[in-house]
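Run: sequence + FE2/S2 (inorganic) cluster -> complex structure.
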Amino acid sequence: MTTDHWVEAAALADVRRRRRLAVTVAGRHIALFLVGETVYALDDLCVHKQRRLTKGTLLYGRVICPGHQWKIDPETGRVEDREECQPTYAVRVDGGTVYVDPRPRVPTKES
Ligand code: FES
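>> structure
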């Protein structure tokens, strides 16, 4: 992966404080979630009915959408028991800053 596309998205301290953070990167609404010590980035607008994932919860490492409680793997974007997948983004943490590559990764159930 090239590093040409990294965009500064947030301070790591802000993500740590709330464990989730809504940011706008290159015009995209992106949700940052802290699971353990890892920061993940997904489209903030749910692939189902566009509710904001940052208004949802984290449970057992899954993002729970506030709309209809779909359970989303923040690493892959896969939705439990569904065909739909939530776009995700590559994340890099460097020197207390979270960088996001704003090119969405859209997985499939098979990938
Ligand atoms: S809007 Fe996210 S599950 Fe329906």
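>> summary
Helices lie at 12-18. The chain has one helix and nine strands.
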